[in-house]
Amino acid sequence: MRDLGSFRHHQVFLNYPFDADFSTIAEALNFAVVAAGLLPVCALDLSAPDRPRLDMLIDAISCCHYSVHDLSRAKGDGHENFARMNMPIEMGLALYPALTSQRAEHRCAFFVASPHDYKRFASDLAGLDPRCHNEDPATAVTLMYEWLRAVVPATIFNSCPTVEVVTCFDDYQRTATRVKGSGINGHPSHVELREVMYGVCEERGWWDWRKAKVGQTAFPKLPLSWKP
User: Are 111 and 72 in contact (CB under 8 A)?
Assistant: First the structure.
């Protein structure tokens, strides 16, 4: 992973479910960050076998001035009916610096799948105005991009009509289907999908980190294999 500390004010930590059913919403959240000219970071980007995962998460969140937390998975899974607790833990790690600094050091947004269910399993979010995407990718792109527009300084935010970003997400999805991926059943991996996002947004001048040598070093281009 790149040096997170060097890009703190351009980075957005994304905390969301990693299951296959949520993958399109996950891509929508990541894409909106890239389209804004910013840098998405999530737990999938962290890898250090000699470090506890919690240490890496704390470092990653502290190196991101913004974070978004999706609590769409509140019910138990599997035959043992266990609930998923990683997302609330990561949310708590981000809320502390946000609230103790009066949001000067960290800004958070919260996403939910339905407008009312969260009041039953996370009632404290009621005062934090969670955004509801209804598990619709276009809505997720819209809500994410417009929240970033509201909190990120205009000098570093790529501002364009939100409807163009939503349309571009459709283009990204079509492009991603052409990638011969290294994931399960030939599906593109997390890093391969991220590379497609970078490329689609680079073509439109929205994401220009590789124009400078420092960006080329920090974000080297990942070779992709394309289907005929």
Answer: yes
> Pairing mode, if any, of strands 39-42 and 107-112?
unpaired
pTM higher than 0.90, yes or no?
Answer: yes
Numbers of helices and strands, H then E, in the chain = 8, 5
90 neighbors 43 (Cβ within 8 angstroms): yes
Strand stretches in the chain, DSSP E: 11-15, 39-42, 66-70, 107-112, 131-132
Neighbours of 196 (CB within 10 A): 23
Yes or no: say if 71 and 112 are a contact pair by the CB < 8 Å rule: yes
What are the phi and psi torsion angles at 115 (to 5°)?
A: -75, -15
| Contact between 29 and 3 (Cβ < 8 Å) | no
pLDDT cut 70: percent of the chain above it = 98
* Domains (range + CATH), the chain: 4-158 (3.40.50.450)
pLDDT at position 120, please? 75
Question: How many CB atoms within 10 Å of residue 15?
Answer: 26
Return left, alpha or beta for 186; rule: phi > 0 is left, psi -120 to 50 is alpha, else beta: left
Distance CA 102, CA 96 (A): 10
